[in-house]
Structures are given as structure tokens and as C-alpha cells.
Amino acid sequence: MNIELLGTLDVRENGVSITPTAPKPRQVLALLALHADQVVSVAALTEELWGSTPPRSARTTLQTYVLQLRELITAALERGRPEEGKRRTAKNVLATLPGGYLLDSGEGTSDVREFERLAGVGYRAIDAGDFQGAVRQLRKGLELWTGPAFADVQLGEVLQMEAKRLDETRLCALDQRIEADLRLGRHRDLLAELTVLVNRYPTHENLHGQYMLALYRSGRRSEALTAYQRVRTTLVQELGLEPSVDLRRIQRLILMASPDGALDSASSAGGRLVRSN
């Protein structure tokens, strides 16, 4: 089974799509696919579909959605490679287990799992001082994203939380990839990307610190200081907060023409999502 969730929903069994078109079954499949090879409880599926006020027929209706998914799986097994179809049945692929349902990926691929694996390799490379390797692995992971997670799925409460969690992991990986690029001296190369990012995330202090550093290292000291004043104004007006100690330290070190110290300060947040909106 091939599972793609980091963008539009696409789940394929035996090379054939099993992604339904109706909104509710898509929600069920998205949640099962996110937790492939694990039991997803009936309670979680019910909350996703109907929130805190499920109808009396919720369990029966959920069973109907599962049946619809199994029909798609059966068709995929029949249309795909015959030898594979003989080994797996729809009830094996989408199994009913005590307390819930399990989508068996059959040792297939999942873009979420691959992203998390590559991000982990990238973080370990940073810890080991291998910034080139970190950039390579984190970039590969970030390239798996083709849009927001579950981009074409009607999100209930459970998937909304999962989408936010996944987006934060993406931001963290992006933050660390930029940090590694800065360590490699690619300041000018980062300016265009960081210009977009600081406008998209106007209160994300890590990104603003990296932007200030890239500007300064590119010989644009006054613009770096202007960037600090801009993010400070935003933080005060929108959150009632002064910039963090790390961001203020970067400003001071730029004023003192101390780029090495500024780089250390920019790295000190360690990928935390500081006041990101």
C-alpha cells in the first residue's frame, strides 16, 4: 500500500487508488492511513466524523463507511497484480479488531513516516556537526510535502489537530534545514526563501533571527536591524510581548559586528517554534 497525506489524499492498494470521493469516507480513510498498522478506536473515528454530538446511528453509519472502503479495496485487489490479490483480502487490509479498525499497509510506503524518518536523520546529523548531510536529509523530507496535510479532506476535530501537529513538524524541519544552511555559509542563497517565510510567519522568532543573520552576513546590516524593529513591533502589537532573549542578543551582536556570536545565538533555540502563529 502507498499512502500520501502530505498534500492531497492518495491511498493506493496494489497500485490502484482506494481513495473515495465522498467526504465522510475520506475522513475515515485519512485517519486510518495516518495511523496505518495501528488500531484506530471507534471513539476516535466517531469524534472525527461528528465531534462531540454523534447521532444515535453513528456506529452503524461508521460501519457503512468501512464497508464502502472495503469495496474499493476489493476492486483494487482484483484489478492489481493477481498474485498480490490472492494473498490479501479487503478484510485483511482493513481489519475489524477489538475497539476499532486497522489499515494494514502491507509494509508499503507512507509519506508521513518517511518524512519523520528523514527529519530524524537530519536532526542527528546536525547534532554530529554534519551540516551538509543534515541539509540533504531535511531537504528530502521537506520535498515530500506537496501542500498542507490532508489538503483535500474535510477535517473534523481529530484530523484538525493532526494537521496542526504535522505542520509544526514541517516548520521545525524547515527551521533546522535553514540553520544548517547558515552554518554552511549560504546566507545570500537563503534571503529569498527567508523573505517569504518571515512574511508568512510574522511572529516566528527563529525564522526572523535567521533572516537577520542572513541579511547581516550578506552585507546588509541596516536591513537586518530594520527586520528586528519590524518583528519587535509585530510582537508587541499582536502578542503584547517583547522579543525573546535570543532575538535581542542577535540584534546586539549585529550592532557590535559580531556575526559568530550571532550565529551561535540563532542556533540556541534548537528548532523550537518560538511564538509562531
What's the N-to-C terminus distance?
A: 35 Å
Mind describing the biggest β-sheet?
A: 4 strands, mixed
Q: Which CATH class of the largest domain applies here?
A: Mainly Alpha
How is the largest sheet built, in terms of strand order? 3-2-1-7
Tell me the Rg in angstroms: 23 Å
On the 0 to 100 scale, the average pLDDT is 92
Helix residue percentage: 55-70%
- CATH homologous superfamily classification of the largest domain: Winged helix-like DNA-binding domain superfamily/Winged helix DNA-binding domain
Number of helices: 13
Number of strands: 7
Number of domains: 3
Strand content: 5-15%
CATH architecture of the largest domain: Orthogonal Bundle
Q: What is the H-and-E element order?
A: EEEHEHHHHEEEHHHHHHHH
Broad structural category: alpha+beta
Low-confidence stretches: 268-277
Overall shape? elongated
According to CATH, the fold-level topology of the largest domain is Arc Repressor Mutant, subunit A
GO molecular function: DNA binding
Protein name: OmpR/PhoB-type domain-containing protein
Pfam family, one: Trans_reg_C
InterPro entries: AfsR-DnrI-RedD_regulator (IPR051677), BTAD (IPR005158), OmpR/PhoB-type_DNA-bd (IPR001867), Sig_transdc_resp-reg_C-effctor (IPR016032), TPR-like_helical_dom_sf (IPR011990), WH-like_DNA-bd_sf (IPR036388)
